[in-house]
């Protein structure tokens, strides 16, 4: 190997090591040194994380993350801590955390084994499952009713993977389309481009309630999945994760999380000031009796 080539490889190696060192810097240490906290959010994951009429990120998960931000500020001793918001999609959210562009992802993201290879999750703030959003005049009541037809789900989501797997296993010959986001999936159903939109039912209720004609849509079918939704955070940052886990556990066991939940699921919410009327379900109540970041599914 020539001396010039060796120097070139050495320079590349030093650059990579430097990059990794920056990426691996603990969140709390960075903020204590004057850094900012970056919160990733979604555009249309109602009521968890979405933008209001003023383009501000709002929602159930956002309220939880803003509570966590204050705990982080106090822990680091920062008198002022800049909080920056980063909009992400189903396709970009995991990379945003894994690559260090955001510290918390506050949305409706499922904690599963595949994702835990790249990121960490705190204690779930919701448990749900994927069902079908169809037009009110549709006779369909289950996924098998779409044999040989078209359905849609959002790119990069666990419901999309679940419906692809079900289609393969049951030989239903369904044409599965991918939408860029949840709002587009609903629009495709409304316009007849797809017979159903497959997504977590709590998101479907939120999306439907904010359409111009909510009565024109309905949610049908058995659960295709069981989804534990949780805030994402960087992997291999144990001090940061412990702080987040401890605060989530405190919110749950003190029941302070319940008024936050009711604000977004039981009371009128923007942009149309309609209530979802979804009380805490039995799955979540049971899970919150012994709050943990471990999920069995």
Automatic annotation (TrEMBL):
SUPFAM superfamilies: Periplasmic binding protein-like II. The keyword Oxidoreductase does not apply. Residues 1-23 form the signal peptide. InterPro entries: Bact_solute-bind_prot3, Solute-binding_3/MltF_N. Keywords: Signal, Transport. Residues 36-268 form the Solute-binding protein family 3/N-terminal domain. GO terms for cellular component: extracellular region; outer membrane-bounded periplasmic space. This is Amino acid ABC transporter substrate-binding protein. It comes from Caenimonas aquaedulcis. The lineage of its organism: Bacteria, Pseudomonadati, Pseudomonadota, Betaproteobacteria, Burkholderiales.
